[in-house]
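notes to self, project folder thing:

trying the whole complex as one job this time. last attempt i did each chain seperately and stitching them together was a nightmare. four parts in total, labels are on each line so i dont mix them up again. if this works i'll redo the older ones the same way
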Amino acid sequence: MLCGVPVRPQPPESLPDDAADDAFRSDCPARVVLDHVTSRWGVLVLTGLATGPLRFHELRTKIEGISEKMLSQTLRTLVRDGLVERAVEPSSPPRVSYSLTPLGEGLTQPLQHLFIWIRDHARLVSAAQERHDARSEGQPG
Amino acid sequence: MLCGVPVRPQPPESLPDDAADDAFRSDCPARVVLDHVTSRWGVLVLTGLATGPLRFHELRTKIEGISEKMLSQTLRTLVRDGLVERAVEPSSPPRVSYSLTPLGEGLTQPLQHLFIWIRDHARLVSAAQERHDARSEGQPG
DNA sequence: TATAGGGGCTTACTTTTAGTAAGAAGCGAT
DNA sequence: ATCGCTTCTTACTAAAAGTAAGCCCCTATA
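result (full assembly):
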């Protein structure tokens, strides 16, 4: 009964917003999953695989800026989490390809919404940053 | 014309999936936004504010495990990004409360979907981890 | 006047995590 | 026998996060 989650009886006195609760607790499985998914490269790897299986170096190329070490490490974590599957084709040299599991596929839907939002609003955020920086320079402190 | 995005001509030979592209490039504004949003505490802060404004220590209490330093730092980043607003009530002592801007509110919708998915599937992930660890122990090397 | 305490931070220091560069295993081709 | 390709590791260094303490402004208490 990890951190009270498994049979959480939904206490009626709390949570006007039912949805976004679990991951706020530091000792919950949900927090661990959130940490893995939103790790430095987790979102990119998961979303990178959303359109189909990719080999190690294909992923590395697609995700600009990731190092082999971090790609390897992130993939290992996600494989362990059951979100990504690692398949070794017994050729020579053996080709390793990664794909989403059915579980992982469910996750990429919210992640793609996030991606789309970010793509569509990134420039608004940049503009806000510039406004903020301009204001801050004017106000010495 | 930052990193070719503004008037990206959509080369037809790539991207069968139009949507999830931008943040894959390391020099794009979208990548910066993704980094801020999915920073260690970004998702939790943003989602924590989704149900309404909160004061500094209220947020700190809601988000188990965050330190004051990281809360302060994360909030500063998100305020600069125009996703969160910082309001100082001129009382004595002054109360500082944080809330989502309209821009930030748009972002919390995808994030809440992510939260819900994680809450609903965290145990499946934990189970996958246990299976994986059991298998790995059996296979030395 | 001294003192304690709350709220919202910041600073100095330590630990963890990520980045960089190089190398190793396994094989086939030259 | 050496080269190179692919998928990872392994050292080492740099950056980010964690920890603990303190600061500033105010208010209440004695």
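what i see at first glance: Helices of chain B lie at 29-37, 42-48, 56-62, 68-80, 102-138.
need to look closer tmrw
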